[in-house]
Amino acid sequence: DSATAPREFEIELLVFQNLVANDGGEIWPIDYSEWFEEPGDEPVKNDSATTEINWLPKNSYRLTAERNALSRSSQYRPLAYLAWRQSVLDRAQSVPIELPDNNSSSTDTYISGSVRVAVERYLHLYLDLQLHTPVSDEQLELLEYDIPEIRLTQHRRMRSKEIHYFDNPRFAVIALITPYKPPPQEAGPAA
């Protein structure tokens, strides 16, 4: 029944790095959690709770003008541009999607993390992303082997077909969620 079938949406995320080193006094926490993990502490994954995603071809991207503008800027560097289609379920059933490791950045800087899209009365986007930047031996010595965790963890109610912006001082995300309407089925030969 199409009335009870989950609606499909196309999700686009354009992630970019702020190259201007001004954190405005922000102090980045150190993530010590891996020091305290015991074997078997990994979260149990529910294999039955999966979301099928269809990666979109580059010719269907809607944020290309924004990506091109960021590419020309001396202050920003695009790190990843991801676009996919998925069924969007309610908050209890929605599953985070892990970002693929093949980020499009040509440097050693990349992002990792997960994205979750849910629908209740409104669409909701949950971002949990981490920026990974190369650390020189000199910097590592100054940091006393404590590498700060630069993370963007935000949740926002979204309006479809509107561009939304998420940021922290080091990197940002431009997000767009668009309802997907399948092309009409071609009529078969008349009987």
Describe this structure in words.
It is built from three helices and nine strands; from the N terminus they run E-H-E-H-E-E-E-E-H-E-E-E. The protein is mainly beta. The protein has a five-stranded antiparallel β-sheet, covered by helices on one side. It has a four-stranded antiparallel β-sheet with strand order 4-5-6-7, with no helix packed on it. The model is unreliable at 40-48 (pLDDT under 50).
Short recap of the structure:
By secondary structure, the chain is mostly beta strands. The chain has helices spanning 33-36, 64-72, 137-142, and strands at 7-18, 53-55, 76-88, 97-98, 110-119, 123-132, 150-158, 163-167, 171-179.
Summarize this structure as a short list of keywords or feature phrases.
191 residues, mainly beta, 5-stranded antiparallel β-sheet
C-alpha termini separation: 26 Å
Number of helices: 3
Percentage of residues in helical conformation: under 10%
Class from secondary-structure proportions: mainly beta
Overall radius of gyration = 20 Å
Largest sheet: 5 strands, antiparallel
Q: What is the overall shape? A: globular
User: What portion of the residues fall into strands of 2 or more residues?
Assistant: 35-45%
Average pLDDT, rounded to a whole number, is: 81
The neighbouring-strand order within the major sheet is 2-3-1-9-8
Return residue spans where pLDDT drops below 50 for at least 5 consecutive residues.
Answer: 40-48
- The number of strands is 9
List the helices and strands and how they pair.
Blueprint (H helix, E strand, L loop, with lengths): L6 E12 L14 H4 L16 E3 L8 H9 L3 E13 L8 E2 L11 E10 L3 E10 L4 H6 L7 E9 L4 E5 L3 E9 L12
Antiparallel strand pairs: 1-3, 1-9, 2-3, 4-5, 5-6, 6-7, 8-9
